[in-house]
Amino acid sequence: MRKVIAIVVQNGLVVAHTTNDHPTPCKREGFPSGEGYELCKYCQYENHAEYKAVKGLTGGTVYLIGHTYACEPCKKAVKDAGMELVIVPE
């Protein structure tokens, strides 16, 4: 399972820091990234680092570390929170 970290910065301060950690083994082991989410309750977008990071916050920037993209529900959550998403290359 790929470890993903989301950090929310507002006015130069880190206000949230979350990860996508969950118990192993994952039922999605061996699946390509972005596929098979329906097989594991911990892999649902509500448990994704970026989704958890923006919950209850408005404005700022989300830095996503450890992944090359955000899924559509997470991108929507970031946008709905009035935030910008920056994906930090590995």
Structure description:
The protein is α+β, with helices and mostly antiparallel strands and 90 residues long. It has two helices and four strands; from the N terminus they run ββαβαβ. The chain has helices at residues 49-54, 72-80, and strands at residues 5-10, 13-19, 60-65, 83-88. The chain has a four-stranded mixed β-sheet. The mean pLDDT is 91.
Distinctive features:
alpha+beta; 90 residues; 4-stranded mixed β-sheet
Query: How would you spell out the order of helices and strands?
Result: EEHEHE
**Nearest-integer average pLDDT:** 91
Tally the beta strands: 4
Parts with pLDDT < 50 across at least 5 consecutive residues: none
Tally of individual helices: 2
Q: Which shape, going by the Cα principal axes?
A: elongated
In short:
The chain is α+β, with helices and mostly antiparallel strands. It has helices at about 50-55, 70-80; strands at about 5-10, 15-20, 60-65, 85-90.
Topology:
Layout (H helix, E strand, L loop, with lengths): L4 E6 L2 E7 L29 H6 L5 E6 L6 H9 L2 E6 L2
